[in-house]
Design brief:
Two copies of one chain form a homodimer. The first copy, chain A, is of the alpha+beta class and about 240 residues long. Chain A has helices at about 15, 20-25, 85-90, 110-115, 120-145, 150-165, 175-180, 185-195, 215-220, 220-235; strands at about 30-35, 40, 50-55, 60-65, 70-75, 95-100, 105-110, 170, 200-205, 205-210. Chain A has ten helices and ten strands. Chain A is globular. Chain A starts with 12 loop residues before the first helix and ends in a 7-residue tail after the last helix. Chains A and B meet through β4, β5, α3, α5 and α10 of A and β4, β5, α3, α5 and α10 of B. Chain A binds a DNA duplex (30 and 30 nucleotides) through α8.
Chain lengths: ~240, ~240
DNA sequence: GATCATATGTACGCAGGCGCACAGACACTT
DNA sequence: AAGTGTCTGTGCGCCTGCGTACATATGATC
């Protein structure tokens, strides 16, 4: 869909939080990109050529094992940036970034981001604070994977995804969700069935609609709340100073 | 034990990797500290007053749930620093840092570290690279928790701990290990029994001795290797430039 | 509207890990 | 040398999630 309706970089909250002076410099360099379902933005061990600022898409960071088994480390949506390892100094990461929910975003050439980062001003601090939030998400996921049921994790996952979307509908198969959570597809079917029975969600073939968000939050493990709170704390919805 | 033998900050590899000019400035500010087993270096949500550079101690970063259940996110030994969230901009983290193996280290006042970090030179890049390695460890732990057996995880954990110690003996109860891995104490007993039967380790009441390191590596899941490789890549044993 | 790939539902046995309970064994105290 | 607290070993039954297999439903395509 060329000439799509929304092509505003400010839909990405990280970009929106940039001081005006910085933003003005960035805008000409940002390229709108289409992020179709399943697109791999970066692969384990490969050098990063671009970073991405999703606007309507959601991207998952996955840890992938030799045998193909995977688990989601964290999710990135319109609140963040894909490719933090670039400015952390790694050039690459041993994880994979995959578009989990189709949409759009903006890309920026790696060397340009590095230039901006190395100015060591508010841009840098903003990116580091975002990374800190990402770390929190990972840390919580470690414990969640260990201690909570598929049911609870599904709630957490739905809520985290929802926060990163405008709508209350996810275009997403259960198979995909299973890959993210690192569980069986059947396990997701079962858990989703429970949530449906409880009147919290509705779904059909590749679409999940959340009916009762507060209900989901109540059913979810504490992990969702912990992560959300930390994102809100570290990345308030206002300009960086 | 006052006037202990080794009080050399350079035993910490991160400090050792500092350019001489930076190191010279730091040395007078570093205070040797005793890190006894179980000491909490920072608590969830609390402001960090110091950062720590372990030399002979090992520190675990834990995710702690409301009900007290926990899981280790990552380990820090003589290769690193405890308190990365300070310079990442968070002031605090929702995790806890506990001394997992008694020993010593050096502390540095938070504001001094921030001053150094904000010079935005090689110190900053070194710390960020270290943080990137830490992130890798977390990411791998997410997947490991999900897909690997207690047996394999114990191997990984032993190896990671060993890399952060001089000796091949860990002073550590199975109960403690269970807390780190987020499993039952009995599960660790069982797994340790297996490893003993296989001639890989020896142990008695609070002490574990590794007999066959290569054997452990073979028995461990791939996660150990992935993490190790990334630490080596990001933090080579030489001065930063 | 028939066809077909793909998404979802269900069932069954199995294994790993949990919670609990208690027995033995070790090291430190006095 | 005895006493004591803690650490380790072991044995249940239970439940969750896994692997496998197959049945059914749905929505896109022709």
């Amino acid at each position: 869909m060329p000439g799509d309706h929304q092509e505003d970089p400010l839909e990405n909250k990280l970009l929106a939080a940039l001081p005006d002076a910085d933003l003005a410099r960035w805008l000409p360099q940002l390229e709108p990109v289409d992020l179709p379902l399943g697109k791999v933005l970066y692969e384990s061990g490969r050098r990063l050529s671009h970073v991405y600022f999703p606007t309507t898409a959601i991207v998952s960071l996955l840890s992938v094992m030799e045998d193909g088994a995977s688990a989601e480390i964290s999710v990135v949506g319109h609140e963040g940036i894909v490719g933090v390892s670039l400015f952390m100094g790694g050039d690459s990461t041993p994880s994979r970034a995959v578009v989990q929910s189709a949409g759009r975003g903006f890309s920026l050439k790696a060397h340009l981001l590095l230039l901006e980062f190395n100015r060591a001003g508010s841009v840098m601090h903003l990116l580091l604070r975002y990374t800190q939030a990402l770390i929190t998400q990972m840390a919580q996921t470690v414990a969640c994977n260990r201690h909570h049921s598929v049911d609870q994790q599904l709630c957490r996952w739905l809520l985290l995804s929802l926060d990163r979307l405008a709508s209350d509908e996810l275009v997403m198969t259960q198979e995909l969700i299973a890959n993210m959570l690192g569980v069986r597809r059947e396990g997701v079917t079962e858990a989703a069935g429970q949530l449906h029975k409880a009147g919290l969600i509705d779904y059909r073939r590749g679409h999940i609609t959340v009916l009762d968000r507060p209900g989901l939050e109540r059913r979810s493990c504490e992990c969702y709340g912990v992560v959300k709170k930390e994102y809100d704390r570290l990345l308030p919805a206002s300009k960086a100073t």
